[in-house]
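ok so I'm stuck.
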Amino acid sequence: MARPCAGSPPAPGSSAPRPAAPRPVRLGTGEPRHAPPRCPTPRWAAALDTGLSNYPATAGEPRLREACAGWMQRRYGLTLDAATQVLPV
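replied:
not stuck anymore, here's the structure
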């Protein structure tokens, strides 16, 4: 009797167990699958008390945007307005 390929569904009417459905692939960001290391955890908690608990400005810092615009000028000859045309992500 021929053996079916590994992972293929059993033949109709077979009493063989069906393979488990694959787990979905999560495409979101920020979903850790394990606990954080214990060493820096108290430092992170202390940082929350100092106000370091939010993300940076979405638009990025002005100096970074200006540096990016300067690089685009040097590399590609493009002139960009750092305040309105550069968004570092």
